[in-house]
Amino acid sequence: MIRGALGTAAGAVFLLCTVAAAQAPLEPSDYRTSEYRAAVPETLSGATVIDAATAEHLWREGRAVFVDVLPRPERPAELPSDTYWRAPERLAIPGSTWLANTGYGTLTPERQAYFEAGLARVIDEATPVVFYCQRNCWMSWNAAKRALELGVEQVHWFPDGTDGWAERDLPLEPLEPWSLEGANG
C-alpha cells in the first residue's frame, strides 16, 4: 500500500513539473511585441537570471542597481479636460530607478533615448543592473535584452519582480518615473 501511494505521489509531482515546464516558453531571438502579460522564458542569453533571494541579497549588500520598467498608464484620452486624473501609484523596490515604458518590444527614438540616458545615469561597468517589473511580464525581459544589445555587461533579470519581492515580505516604496528633463539639474 505504501509503495502504491508513493508511486501515485511521484506521478503527481512528475505531472506538476511537466505542466510547469510546458508553461515556460522558449527564449525568442527577438523582442516580445505583444501580449506582455504572459509566461516568460526561464533564460535570457547573456544575462544572469535571478530569483527573489538573490535580488534581496544584491539589494541588501548595495551591490546592484535596480531598474523598474513597468509601463506608466497615461491619462485616458476620453476623460474630459476638467476631470482630475492621477496615475496609479507604483510601489517598487526601494532605491530603484523607474524607466517607465521602456520594456515594449518596439521603442520610439525618443523612448530609446530616454532608456539610454536613464541607464547611463545609474550604471557603471563595475555594478550589476537588475531589470524587473512584475511576474509574467515581458517588459523586464525586453529591457534587459535591450541593455545587453547596448553593451551593458552585468545584466541581471529578475522575472518575479515586485510580486516575488512582496512575497518575501520585503519593503516596497512609491516611485515616480525618472525624468529626462530633471536629469540636468
What does this entry look like structurally?
The protein is of the alpha/beta class and 185 residues long. It has one domain (42-184): Oxidized Rhodanese, domain 1, CATH 3.40.250.10. The chain contains five helices and seven strands. The protein has helices at 2-23, 52-61, 109-122, 138-149, 161-167, and strands spanning 48-49, 65-68, 90-92, 97-98, 129-132, 155-157, 173-175. It has a five-stranded parallel sheet with strand order 1-6-5-2-4, with helices on one face. A two-stranded antiparallel ribbon has the order 3-7. Helix 4 (138-149) links the parallel strand 5 (129-132) and strand 6. The longest helix is centred in the N-terminal third of the chain and has 22 residues, at 2-23. The chain is globular. The N and C termini lie far apart (74 Å). 31% of the residues are buried.
Can you tag this structure with a few keywords?
alpha/beta, two-stranded antiparallel ribbon, 5 helices, 7 strands, globular, disordered N terminus
Write the layout of secondary structure elements.
Blueprint: H1 2-23, E1 48-49, H2 52-61, E2 65-68, E3 90-92, E4 97-98, H3 109-122, E5 129-132, H4 138-149, E6 155-157, H5 161-167, E7 173-175
Parallel strand pairs: 1-6, 2-4, 2-5, 5-6
Antiparallel strand pairs: 3-7
Report Rg: 19 Å
- The total strand number stands at 7
Q: How large is the share of residues in beta strands? A: 5-15%
String of helices and strands: HEHEEEHEHEHE
Helicity range: 25-40%
CATH C-level label: Alpha Beta
Extract low-pLDDT stretches: 1-21
The count of domains is 1
Which class best fits the helix and strand makeup? alpha/beta
Question: For the terminal residues, how far apart are their CA atoms?
Answer: 74 Å
